[in-house]
Amino acid sequence: MVTDSKPIPHHRGLIVGNYCHDILLHNNLVIAETLGGAASFISTVLDALSLPFHLVSKVGTDFSHAALTTTHPPLVVPSSQTTLFHAHFGSNHPDRILNRVTSCSPITPSDLPTGSRFQFGMAVGVGGEILPETLEKLLDICDTVFVDIQGLIRRFEDDDGRVRHVGLKESGFFHLLPRVSFLKASEDEASCIDLEEVRKWCCVVVTHGKDGCEVFCRDVRFRVDPFEACQVDPTGAGDCFLGGFAAGIVQGMGVFDAALLGNFFGSLGVAQVGPPELDFTLVQMVKEEMHKRKVHDSPDSEKTDDWLVFRKPRDQNQFYTSLVTAKNIIMCHIQENGRNLLSSTKGIEQSNGKTRVVINSVKHEPISSVDSE
Q1: What pTM value is reported for the model?
Q2: For a surface tag, which of 52, 142, 156, 254 has the fewest beta carbons within 10 Å of its beta carbon?
């Protein structure tokens, strides 16, 4: 299946990853269903920053968020269901337990556009939909490629779809690392790679949630400060981070500033349920600050060794302060519109339709308990 046989001249980026249905459960009680998938969170960030891109995503005929994805519509596979995740939270398991309930068809090389070249590409699978040959095709047609490691190392238990990880060397993707520009991993996912070896091939960014992130590239290593956040739902935090980070790099910012921008968007993501609502007018001040921080006109791969790209800027505090100011204004807007409210005891209908916070299961069959595990 080919998305478009004609060139796509006006898109700087190519995003590859399936949309999903996400169901959030607290002590096995369904409290929200929302549009999910890394592609949905990243799309929100890149759209807010006015960075044009083409998206390749697959869903089934049961996809319930078509109205929210008209700007970047998915491919509908008649013979498949939309990928569905259950995210379990509760007193007996404070950390999220993630189960893949159904999965859509994988994205194949023939699904990617032909006849076009892109300034940047992003492989952001969540349910096993990224194949080694698909990533290889993405690397062939994009100048700079960002990869979320979750799309490479996630595996799923046969009985309940519980997410687990395999080592990067056993994933089938390891041989492609020399062609990857940036690899993003959570702290847990980073334990599945030989960081000292992988950083020789590509720049690795490890997120630490409320503690910010670390950047590793060859002989360079530094930590980037976090932003305060009132966490409502951690789902998609890393995706929002990657969207902000990639946008910074593509817009010519240094790696340190781009990572700070990633932390900024990650902190906005956890304050809302589902893909964050970002007022474009308010984000304009962020775009203006980004323009001031440009180091290069483009993320030319030949410039990745340039000391300007990896150095810590002397005026980093100024950029951080500007982002804090922008964040405070954006959060006030979010709170006024009720987007940061999630209750396990009251039903809430979000006005923009991205999230439905409900009582009783969205799916009529019983939800399997995980408390005994």
Answers
A1: 0.85
A2: 52
